């Protein structure tokens, strides 16, 4: 099996000084891209480097969608720096999506263009449903997590027909669990971001458990950063997320226990960044 280098190939498309200096960007979908590469490679789909091309373009589309999700939609007039950040996110998201079409067209992979375009439509439709529920404040925290994981895996699961049939059960199981890992890791890193709290597990968890007064502050958007952190500590939101992530990693170990030694080693290594996130002291993950 050839070496995995999709993140290196993506750098030329996602690392621009202006973007990095003036706005934040979503994380590269490392685990999902690596899974797709591994299973396409095992399927023998190496013609013209497509085992690298498909994870690359799917990651670019994912980053385009994620970048647009990060756009600040506050109604008040933003500062010049926030306005620049907003504009760059719009342009960057469009750019990533444009590169997806260009790279697949150059490779003559029109069928992949159609397949991923359909997946993007499905993602946007699912997001619309979630946002409607959020606007009505009808979003149980576990439902939020599950919904976000579905969004994260939708583009990648499109390639299931191109995965070797004998591998599909393992592929689908691992993609499901690693999509949950990515979701939980993202939620853990967002705990301190009170200004983005309404669209997070922490917000929905606190809204479910909080007192009437705390719920009113959350619903009115009048909770300051200090009060937000106090609520996170009070309800041990970081501990809860870390425990959920640990449980998912346990399920991955269970799945791999039935796989061969090579798969246990290869896919087991992919859990290491998530284990480090759980066990890193002095972070927002463990508040005790």
UniProtKB/TrEMBL annotation:
Superkingdom of this protein's organism: Bacteria
Pfam families assigned: HEPPP_synt_1
UniProt-listed InterPro entries: HEPPP_synth_su1
Record-given protein name: Heptaprenyl diphosphate synthase component 1
Organism: Paenibacillus enshidis
């Amino acid at each position: 099996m050839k070496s995995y280098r999709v993140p290196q190939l993506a750098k030329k498309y996602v690392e621009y000084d202006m973007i990095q200096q003036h706005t934040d960007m979503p994380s590269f979908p490392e685990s999902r891209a690596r899974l797709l590469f591994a299973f396409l490679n095992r399927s023998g789909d190496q013609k013209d480097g497509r085992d690298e091309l498909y994870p690359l373009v799917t990651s670019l589309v994912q980053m385009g969608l994620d970048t647009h999700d990060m756009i600040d939609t506050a109604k008040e007039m933003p500062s010049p720096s926030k306005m620049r950040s907003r504009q760059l996110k719009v342009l960057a998201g469009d750019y990533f999506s444009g590169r997806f079409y260009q790279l697949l067209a150059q490779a003559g992979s029109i069928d992949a263009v159609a397949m991923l375009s359909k997946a993007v439509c499905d993602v946007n439709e699912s997001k619309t449903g979630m946002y409607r529920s959020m606007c009505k404040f009808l979003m149980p925290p576990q439902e939020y997590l599950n919904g976000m994981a579905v969004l994260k895996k939708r583009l990648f699961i499109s390639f299931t027909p191109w995965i070797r049939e004998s591998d599909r059960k393992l592929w689908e199981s691992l993609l499901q669990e690693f999509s949950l890992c990515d979701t939980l890791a993202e939620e853990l890193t967002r705990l301190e971001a009170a200004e983005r709290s309404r669209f997070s597990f922490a917000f929905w968890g606190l809204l479910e458990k909080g007192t009437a007064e705390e719920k009113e502050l959350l619903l009115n958007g009048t909770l300051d950063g200090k009060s937000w952190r106090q609520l996170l500590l009070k309800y041990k939101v970081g501990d809860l997320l870390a425990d959920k992530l640990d449980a998912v990693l346990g399920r991955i170990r269970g799945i791999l226990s039935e796989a061969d030694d090579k798969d246990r080693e290869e896919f087991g290594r992919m859990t290491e960044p998530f284990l480090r996130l759980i066990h890193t002291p002095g972070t927002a993950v463990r508040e005790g």
